[in-house]
Amino acid sequence: MNLQPVILCGGAGTRLWPLSREQYPKQLLALAGEQSLLQTTARRMLPSSAETGGKVRAPIVVANEEYRFITAEQLRQAEVPPAALVLEPVGRNTAPALTLAALAAHESGDDPVLVVMPADQVIRDEAAFRAAVELGAVHAQAGRLVTFGIEPDRPETGYGYIRAGAALGDDGRGREIAAFVEKPDAATAERYLASGEYLWNAGIFMMRTSVWLQHLGAMRPEILRACRAAFDARQRDHDFLRIGREAFDACPSDSVDYAVMERLPAGLGVVIPLAAGWSDVGAWDALWQIGEKDADGNVLRGDVMVVRTRNTLAIAQSRLVACLGLADAVIVETPDAVLAAHKDHIQQVKEIVARLKREGRSEADAHRKIYRPWGYYDSIDAGSRFQVKRIVVNPGAALSMQMHHHRAEHWIVVKGTARVTRGEEVFLVSENESTFIPLGTRHRLENPGKMPLEMIEVQSGAYLGEDDIVRFDDSYGRA
Could you tell me if residue 161 is inside a domain? Predict the structure, then answer.
């Protein structure tokens, strides 16, 4: 039996602002360890035959094209090269994303069992998860569609639920899906917990590739048609698989649950109860729940000092954060924004993000540090007609050959050696040396060394926006 992991990287995670931003969503963040949520998801089922009863393939990853380069880089750092990195030009929810992955898996000519995992969840007991996958594979191989239900430990109102029905299989661990239930109010959640019949809907699925395509074609044929048209128009772009934008733009948006799982005839849907230390880390209170707490129930990260403070989550990224006399609070500091909230209101963080977007503020979309395929830059300071950036270029990487209409640039090398193309000149700039790029001059910055190149860039001019770039040549295929 072949198992094909599928990692879905959609969603912006707005309730985890200011750490999670539209251009750097929560799956790219290290929220529960040294690695990002994407990296731990990718390593959850490494290509191997152990513990799963079958061969595990390299994952198919479906991601938004806006953060394709950092997604690819994180997978490289995690040492999990994907079988395909499929780029969605627009978000259309999980059913179309899964369908693109299924079409990519179908190219192999066989019919693997898909193991569909969101990229932004925490599972602490990975052995328990793999054991549940082994059980789910038996049902999936028999033509059923499998989901995993988390055994609840509290009356949670923020999750959808699954009501488990009759036991299936020799060991009775698999259960028929009796019903999918929307997020309940507090009293209903208490009743669900007391009954023992309800599980949290984890959004993790298993099914044979052909079974998914068959049921989607019967229940939502317009989604399947649009995804097939988009996949047929695909193009290979370096490490990425770009699907047809026009066809995918026309695809309806729907979730796996609504499109197929909730419409299945009796006996075809199976839920596997899962107790594996799961969390969707959907909001700051969820991160507090899974975090390591001090004697007063505080979860502290970074340079944080607390006095007479309890049951509080405090995260500092760039400076000291001091908390005095707080209870049940969330404090999250980043270089360009600070969130201070009571835990009871933490679900409303998305209202702040919506207001930032209405006012056209960049803090809704991006961090001060912006990742690029060649490395990253950090906007240190800015004012009228000037901007200062710290630029880090990876070993062997190069920026595009480019030109600016409205700004000049002064480059100072802090660490490493830069190879600079300026007009017809090509020369090296070493540590503590600098060079100047006049307005309107073609130029390129490269790192020929084996260590990161760090430099300071001072821009000056009438307009300093990132769209003032005319590219003549680019190793990464950017327009």
Answer: yes
One domain, residues 426 and 390: yes
Indicate whether 317 and 444 sit together in one domain: no
Around Cβ 58, how many Cβ atoms within 10 Å? 17
* DSSP H/E element including 244: none
Q: What is the C-alpha to C-alpha distance for residues 170 and 378, in angstroms, rounded to an integer?
A: 57
Compute CA distances 199 → 125, 155, 319, whole Å.
18, 11, 41
Last residue of a domain, one of 355, 378, 395: 355
Report field, pTM of the whole predicted structure over 0.70: yes
* Residue 299 and residue 256 in one domain: no
Residue 327 per-residue DSSP state: B
C-alpha span between 2 and 442 (Å, rounded): 51
Q: What is the DSSP string of 113-126?
A: EEEEEETT-EES-H
The Cα 120–Cα 280 span in angstroms is 7
Alpha-carbon gap, residue 147 to 155, rounded angstroms: 21
DSSP string computed for 7-73: EE-----GGGTTTSBTTB-GGGS-SSSSS-HHHHHHHHT-SSSTTTSSEEPPPEEEEEGGGHHHHHH
Last residue of a domain, one of 227, 244, 279: 279
Question: What pLDDT score does 66 carry?
Answer: 85
Cis check for the bond before 18: say yes or no (omega within 30 of 0): yes
96 and 235 fall within a common domain: yes
Q: Is 433 helix (H, G, I), strand (E, B) or coil?
A: coil
What sign results for the dihedral spanned by CA atoms 87, 92, 94, 95?
negative
Token pair 């998305």 is at which residue?
350
Residues 44, 189 within the same domain: yes
What residue numbers bound the domain in which 326 lies?
284-355
Instruction: List average pLDDT for each run of 10 residues in the chain, which is 479 residues long.
Output: 92 87 91 94 78 76 91 93 95 96 91 96 94 94 95 90 87 86 93 94 96 97 97 91 95 96 92 93 92 97 98 97 98 96 93 95 89 92 94 96 96 97 97 96 97 97 91 85
Does residue 281 contact residue 37 with C-beta atoms inside 8 Å? yes
